[in-house]
Write a structure and sequence with these properties.
Elements: H1 5-18, H2 24-31, E1 36-37, H3 38-52, H4 63-75, E2 79-83, E3 91-95, H5 97-115, H6 117-128
Antiparallel strand pairs: 1-3, 2-3
Length: about 140
């Protein structure tokens, strides 16, 4: 392995670390338009998932999981917590410029997944059935 590949690999590792957790992308997408209170954010994410038919998550986002996700995202500088005195909830969350930048960087990855959705499904089904995805047995390679 060449030394030139290490910074690239390290960068991918760092980005994947910031994206760890199954609800990070949902939080990023939900906060893209405007800051939200904690309760509105939780409601928005679950309503969106329900509308989509729970294709990306098996069950609704729970408060504890959202709290943990937001703490990690604050630690990584993707989200800021804003205290605003009001009668409707005083804690708001907003994307940082780095959070917005990460969301934009995910667009090509989402396009790749869309372009290869069928291939991914077939490969996963073949793997689950114990067959190679490309029709070549592992012993013949």
């Amino acid at each position: 392995m060449s030394d030139e590949s290490l910074p690239y690999r390290h960068g991918i590792h760092e980005a994947m670390g910031a994206l760890s957790g199954q609800w990070v992308t949902a939080v990023l997408a939900s906060l893209t338009a405007r800051p939200m209170t904690y309760s509105k954010l939780l409601e928005h994410i679950n309503r969106t998932e329900e509308r989509l038919g729970w294709v990306t998550h098996e069950r609704p986002l729970r408060q504890k999981v959202l709290t943990d996700t937001l703490h990690r995202m604050q630690r990584d500088g993707l989200v800021v917590k804003i205290d605003r005195p009001s009668t409707f909830g005083s804690t708001w969350y907003q994307l940082t410029p780095m959070g917005r930048s990460l969301l934009r960087a995910l667009l090509p990855l989402a396009k790749w997944a869309e372009d290869h959705r069928g291939e991914l499904s077939r490969a996963r089904a073949a793997h689950a059935a114990g067959k190679p995805a490309d029709g070549v047995s592992p012993d013949s390679r």
